[in-house]
Amino acid sequence: MLAAVAVVFLTIDLTGSGLRGAHGGVQGALGALYRGTDGVLGPVRRFVQGVPHAASNRDTIDRLRRENAQLHERLAQDAAGASLNLDLSRLPSTSVPARVIALGPGSGFDWTVTLDVGRHNGVQDGETVTDGVGLVGRVLHTSASTCIVLLAADPGSGVGARDTRTGELALATGQGTSGFAVSPLDPATRISVGDQLVTGPAGASTYVAGLALGTVTSVRTSADGTTVAHVRPAVSPTALDIVGVIMTAPAAEAAR
Amino acid sequence: MTPARLAAAATATVVALVLQATLIAPAALTAQLSLPAVLVAAVALESGPGAGMSLGFVTGLVADLGSAHVAGLLALCWLGVGIGCGLLVGPHRHVAGQAMLAAVAATVAGALAMLGLTVVDEPGGTALGAVHGLLPSLAGNLVLAALVVPLVRRVLRADALRAVGSG
């Protein structure tokens, strides 16, 4: 009997938006609980996340390496932006700072995080989230005081990308903690190890354009000429803490 | 089901879901550990398939609705955990065996849920990911079960809950 009810839920949710309200209600209630307990559980979580790096200098070395890589990526993006004559002033610049307070409550296969900002802070569904340098994901659902963000690293999710060296467009598919698998839209395009990828193209992507996606670490060309590159992400999905939600123009106006 | 058991089940469900989202999932992103699934298995191993099935369905449905994936998936998987664990063993089995069974059941349920996501073409699930994650998930769920199973046994055998029926 209960199994039949579960199958009915599955069918309703797969075939339409009939459970959208129920999803929103439970996500809002759980979000409020996460927010309420973050004062106690947040420091414990950050301690647990830091345990693998405890008592070593590896943490500091990794951080400095990341900063170095990010500076290199920024230089590459600036150069590419100038050559492509991108109108960066049109990109939304207002962002709401937020903190990651939870992940999915299920089995750990959800590549989503809950942030401590919501509609009251002007956050809207679909807005892009960044850690200040790279792409984190996009807002999937907002409640009054929290929002759920689908990480770009979610296996199966696609991100429009641009190679800053060639300006060519590609589709990056999330691979979880492994990064992204990238296929150029034009099969004749050559992707090289070390190429920097950013989100794009402007105005035609789910995400705000120009955010660092990652660096190409390997390229594989199959017998039929299909090229797939592996990209190390600019943002580690396992080390998220402080992020920013980039607000769209009307939301930014409303928040002021 | 009496008010005392109902209150205990509701509290345990909410605490497990909050701890899963705020502590366990962030600490183990590369494996599919699941405190709620281990809890369902532990209750079923102690109280039988009826209690396990009900707790599995309700906990799974709340987790489904609180997540971005399709509703009903975890409800179905954890309901199966409740029935399976409830049928497999009686209440007098050794705690180590129960912990092992709870960990295996939670791991299998996690892998099945991930495969389910692949079947319904939802983001997050890959067949390869489900297979690759089996061993690390089993190890993590074993640790969780070693903590949860003795606690659940003690609570369910407490006089306050025992006096009102056997589930």
The whole-angstrom Rg of chain B is 15 Å
Oligomer: heterodimer
Percent range of helical residues of chain B: over 70%
Q: Summarize the amount of helix of chain A as a percent range.
A: 25-40%
Number of E-state strands of chain A? 12
Rg of chain A (CA only): 20 Å
Percent of sequence in beta strands of chain A: 25-35%
Topology summary:
The complex is a heterodimer of chains A (256) and B (167).
Chain A: H1 2-15, H2 20-50, H3 58-83, E1 95-103, E2 112-115, E3 128-130, E4 135-142, E5 147-151, E6 158-163, E7 169-174, E8 180-184, E9 196-199, E10 212-221, E11 227-233, E12 242-246, H4 249-255
Antiparallel strand pairs in A: 1-2, 1-12, 2-5, 3-4, 3-12, 4-5, 6-7, 6-9, 7-8, 8-11, 9-10, 10-11
Chain B: H1 3-27, H2 35-47, H3 49-65, H4 73-88, H5 95-119, H6 127-132, H7 134-156, H8 159-162
What is this entry, summarized?
The complex is a heterodimer of chains A (about 260) and B (about 170). Chain A is of the alpha+beta class and about 260 residues long. Chain A has helices spanning about 1-15, 20-50, 60-85, 250-255; strands spanning about 95-105, 110-115, 130, 135-140, 145-150, 160-165, 170-175, 180-185, 195-200, 210-220, 225-235, 240-245.
